Amino acid sequence: MASMRDIKRRRSSIASTQQITNAMKLVSTVKLQKTKARAERSKPYFDKMYETVTSMLAKSGTIDHPYLKPQQSGKKAVIVLTSNRGLAGGYNANVIKLITGSGFEPSDLLLYTVGNKGKEFLQHRGYEIAQDYSEVIENPMFQDAKEICEEVLRKYAAGEIGEIYLAYTYFRNTVVHEPKFLKLLPVEVDEGDIQAARENSLMNYEPEEEEALEVIIPKYMTSILYGALVEAVASENGARMQAMDSATSNAQEMIDHLTLQYNRARQGSITQELTEIIAGANAIQ
Amino acid sequence: MADEGKFFDLEIITPDRVFWSGKASMLELNTTEGQVGIYRRHIPMTMIIEPGIVKIHLEGELKEAAVHAGFIEILPDKITMMAEVAEWPDEIDINRAKEAEQRAERRLQAHDPRIDMSRAELALKKSIVRQQLAER
């Protein structure tokens, strides 16, 4: 049996860890509130964007535009959104799994990473990192999304990459975050939505559809990326809050267990002392 | 009730917020095809926005805002504007806009092949629109 001093030392060490995890939980709860509100504010823009692009595609399904047709190049660009900090449970691992489990060969992929954790891991695994935008994830702005998109689209237009994907964590609600792997280009929208849009498509375009498409598709991509960035940040804080919450309650469980052990050891030592005194007294008589 | 007929629903949405939502009787804005004014019962149309001042005509009131990029979807009784950046006059920092104008002009005059001309031109347009609106 461990000595009383050992148990006491162990218990106080766990108590101070618990204080830290508890503080981190509080911090991420506050951050979650903020980022969640932000994700909700950007939703109307994204929804409307999706609706517009769907109705454009419904009308212009026959247009032969590079944004709509698969490209020659076999290279695939993936924008990977992870966090810069750890201690967020499975948050980063889940996004990384999307890449390693995507079935694509590492040599076919070209990664644009946002977030240190994903970058470090994937680089180590032998994936090629085209560019890293890790500082963006701290406070994503629309301008950042725009810059990343411009860079990727430039490569796409130059024929260096044939497809563009996005790996991020979708923020369903405070407790449910789903890792998602989306295809950005060539544009694919749900067939059912296209049918629905086709029924009331009397839309005119000025300038002509092709030209409008040329402008609107990059905007559509930017808005998806921005939405994904904002949601990824909310998910990160949600995941960290959960991880820290269970860490705090695990620490509490260990403290309770150790307290019980400590009390038993204390009781044991008192009993032992008593028997020793009584035995000593008996020996004197 | 006679006036009911002239209002349409107007929504201006930016990535960060719903900038404006309400009824309006006319909307003026700058598009790639030139300046346009839109009343109710316009034919369905999607247009691309150029940097400019957007005028929202409300009942006996005129609201102005600077809008820099995006597109607009027009339906007979509903107009949705998807703006990447939209600002009210009191949100504009005029000194910053003046500085931006200087910088953009310098870049345009430098004739440096490394400089993205269309980008510098856009920056110049934006800064001029901002100043125009803020100085009223």
What does this structure look like?
The complex is a heterodimer of chains A (285) and B (136). Chain A is built from seven helices and six strands; from the N terminus they run ααβαβαβαββαβα. Chain A is α/β, with parallel strands linked by helices. Chain A has a five-stranded mixed β-sheet, sandwiched between helices. The longest helix of chain A is centred in the C-terminal third of the chain and has 76 residues, at 209-284. The two termini of chain A are 34 Å apart. Chain B has helices at residues 94-110, 117-135; strands at residues 8-14, 17-24, 26-31, 34-38, 45-49, 52-58, 61-67, 70-75, 78-83, 86-87. In chain B, the strands form two sheets. Chain B has a five-stranded mixed β-sheet with strand order 2-1-9-8-5, with no helix packed on it. In chain B, strands 4-3-6-7-10 form a five-stranded antiparallel β-sheet. Chain B folds into two domains: 2-87, F0F1 ATP synthase delta/epsilon subunit, N-terminal (ATP Synthase, domain 1, Sandwich); 93-135, ATP synthase delta/epsilon subunit, C-terminal domain (Single alpha-helices involved in coiled-coils or other helix-helix interfaces, Up-down Bundle), CATH 1.20.5. Chain B is α+β, with helices and mostly antiparallel strands and 136 residues long. The mean pLDDT of chain B is 85. The chains are: A alpha/beta (285), B alpha+beta (136). At the A-B interface, α2, β6 and α7 of A face β5 and β8 of B. β6 of chain A pairs parallel with β5 (45-49) of chain B.
